[in-house]
Amino acid sequence: MQNNQKIIAIFGAGGFLGKHLMRQLTKLDYRVKVATRNPFLKGYLKPLGNPGQIELFKTNIFNPEDVKQVLKNCDLVINLVGILYETRKQKFSQIHAKFPYLLCNLCNEIGVKNLVHISALGVREGHVSRYMQSKLEGEKNIQNVFKSSVILRPSLVFGPEDKFFNTFASIAQFSPALPLIGGGKIKFSPVYVGDIAKAIVKALRLNNSEPKIYELGGPENYSFKELMEILLREIKKKRFLIPIPFSLAKFQSYFLQMIPNPLLTPDQVEVLKYNNIVSGEYPTLEDLGISGETIQSILPKYIYRFRTGGQFG
Ligand SMILES: NC(=O)c1ccc[n+]([C@@H]2O[C@H](COP(=O)([O-])OP(=O)(O)OC[C@H]3O[C@@H](n4cnc5c(N)ncnc54)[C@H](OP(=O)(O)O)[C@@H]3O)[C@@H](O)[C@H]2O)c1
Questions:
Q1: Distance 152 CA to ligand 1 centre (A)
Q2: Which residue range forms the structural domain that includes residue 89?
Q3: What sections of the chain are H helices per DSSP?
């Protein structure tokens, strides 16, 4: 281990984005301190670096002493902590707004040089969704408290282990139809997880005179319906695409939210009412020097497992 390696603290590294980011950071020789609720379940992160390059810390993100222990000696911090739905114990406002506030204060105290925070595309004043409201509040907390921060707002992120394509492909295994919420007209700019990881690495190296908020979308916009059609083509399945009006989707979501890992919540229906594409008001992936991968170049590499004959189907 060299002493001149930069040390990075990552919160939420055990998730989808974190795993892809970890490979890029360790290849670049960073030392990584990972804050996680359960280090014993995150052992799969360790082989992504050299022996000793990745350290796991059992962390309650609302306990300042736990957070300080992770931040100690770190130059750079990345916050990937996020949830898609609320539970009895996990509330959007706590995870997306209160934690960034606490983190920024502690970053100031410790003397961290740069913080990269992952928000979400589509945040704006007055959004009905509590997910979006909390993400916006988190951004404001960060900008008010810690000046050397960069906020990245990804659209729908795809790649191996993504929740979007894998979930709908799983449904297509047993269901003769896939739902088109609100008629499937809203648009996304799906962005490859590897490109988000590259953007985070670039953002870590930005200086203070460069923009603070980036909207990260892929090279093309697609409607929800087009995404379902691409998916069905790739997994070689014919399924009915059934338009579901927002009102009916909302009604169904009141029941669906009660199952563990709910497929749809009333709050998500609110998110799905608006396009999730880059607005043109902020710099993008291209401004970070990254030309995004297309769905067509990446999706076939991991979604084949849902074809009847698998990779040879
Ligand atoms: N995936 C997308 O399409 C997408 C799109 C836009 C924005 N984003 C944002 O990008 C970030 C990363 O997304 P992802 O897809 O990688 O999410 P993910 O796979 O669900 O991972 C989220 C991470 O958050 C951590 N976390 C959740 N609740 C926590 C709590 N109470 N205490 C401590 N840690 C907690 C988990 O850490 P541990 O389990 O290790 O403790 C987990 O590793 C999130 O902020 C998300 O909102 C994602």
A1: 14
A2: 7-160+189-219+276-292
A3: 16-27, 64-71, 92, 99-110, 130-145, 164-174, 193-204, 224-234, 246-256, 266-271, 295-303
Per the domain annotation, does 266 fall within a domain? no
Give how many domains the chain has, as a whole number: 1
Query: Does residue 21 line the site of ligand 1, with CB under 6 A?
Result: no
Q: How far is the CA of 121 from the centre of ligand 1 (A)?
A: 15
Is 308 domain-assigned? Answer: no
Residue 232 lies in a domain: no
CA of 105 to the centre of ligand 1 (A): 21
What is the Cα–Cα distance from 24 to 194, expressed in whole angstroms? 9
CATH number at residue 287: 3.40.50.720
CB 55: neighbour CB atoms within 10 A? Answer: 16
Burial class (CB in 10 A: 0-12, 13-18, 19+), 40: exposed
- Is 80 near ligand 1, meaning CB less than 6 Å away? yes
Structural contact between residues 313 and 236, judged by C-beta atoms closer than 8 angstroms: yes
Residue 226 falls inside a structural domain: no
Q: Using one digit for the tens of pLDDT, what is the confidence trace for 14-67?
A: 999 999 999 999 999 999 999 999 999 999 999 999 999 999 999 999 999 999
CB atoms inside a 10 Å sphere around CB 290: 19
pLDDT-above-90 percentage for the chain: 94
> Which atom of ligand 1 is the closest one to the Cα of 157?
3
Given CA atoms 122, 127, 130, 136 in this order, what sign does their dihedral have?
A: positive
Is the per-residue pLDDT at 1 higher than 80? no
What is the β-pairing status of strands 76-79 and 114-118?
Answer: parallel
Distance, C-alpha 174 to centroid of its chain: 28
pTM (2 d.p.) = 0.96
Burial of residue 35 (CB within 10 Å: 0-12, 13-18, 19+) is buried
Work out which ligand 1 atom sits closest to the CA atom of 89.
31
Find the 45 Cα to ligand 1 centroid distance in Å.
15
